[in-house]
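Hi there,

I know you've been waiting on this one. I reran it after we fixed the sequence typo, so this is the corrected version. Both the input and the resulting structure follow.
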Amino acid sequence: MTISTKSLFKRFLIILALQFSGQASAIMISDGDSFSVDWLVDSSLYPALTENLSATSTWSVSFLSSTQIQLDVSITNTTTLTGGLTNADITTLGFGVDPDATASFITKGNIFDMVGDGSGPQQTFPGGFKGIDVCVFAQGCSGGSVNDSLHAGGTDAFSLLLSGNFGSSAELLFFPIKFQTNQGSYEPGGDVTVPEPSIVALLGIGLVIIGFTRRRVM
């Protein structure tokens, strides 16, 4: 059966839509990659919370070898303090790594200046996340004083060196953080967004694929 050029192009666009739309809680990384992770705690889901809690971050893979990865991270607490929400501080940031990894600082943050794995044999994170290989914090993975945390409107940056048996790529997972507020503590997972390639580049790739396929079927 011969597949028409129009049909091939339509399938290509569908694949692109699935690949580059929406968000996920995990990402496969390789050398030179960059992506963002965002967090949102919707106040409409929590009776005690009067305002949304939010944060955003950028991640860059400076290098990746078979045994080491350098991650450069910048995180901003984008929560707005209004009404009854008088403090909303980020005390801890974590993520899982597959294959498993350990982490150390290349450059410490002003706030996030300590690193370890999740606590306990299952490497758990506050909120019940398991398999957390890397936990970055100011006082402890489980939390700490809001005086030493990332306050609403604040930004911090740090660089991590991950060590493990990675081959040519690794997967980062979950990205939970801990918000400590005067209206309770909350531990959301992160949503990963990969920068979308330009539509011109995507169409160019599609035309190359279609041209190659047409030569194969003719």
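Quick highlight: Residues 24 and 192 are 5 Å apart (CA to CA).

Best,
R. S.
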